[in-house]
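Problem: given the chain below (161 residues), write out its structure.
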Amino acid sequence: MLYKAIMNDQKEYLIEEEDLNGLDIVSKGADQFHLLVGGKGHLIRLVEVDYLARTFVYEVDGHPLRIQLKTPLEVQIDDMGYETGAALADSEIKAPMPGLVLDIRVQEGGHVSKGDPLIILEAMKMENVIIAAQDAVIEKIFVQKGTSVEKAQLLLKLSGD
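Solution.
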């Protein structure tokens, strides 16, 4: 399986699971590790984690490093030119790909928090949960359950919380 790691919002690296199996890493506590790469040791400390966005902030030898991981499905979706939920932090929520609206988990006027499910969209024979990227109020819903949608079709409009 192919993962993508984006370092400090700039460099992208493709990582195979086998690449991770060969790492020489030792835990030094709850949030510290020692990593040996090319004969050189590095002290790594986990500073911050956002599991929803799969973003991790580390301190490597005293220097900050922000890593965002993309799953194999997200890598495939990116390669096809579509957007994934992590890329959607807008007041207008649009369909990241063509699909069928299986469920709408919100109501107009309702408050949502970052990470709350908004709509479940079936695409490529998989259920994709579109989540709130920020705290907001549902201003308008433009689709109904059972509706087929096209890529970039407007699904919801959010306003500030």
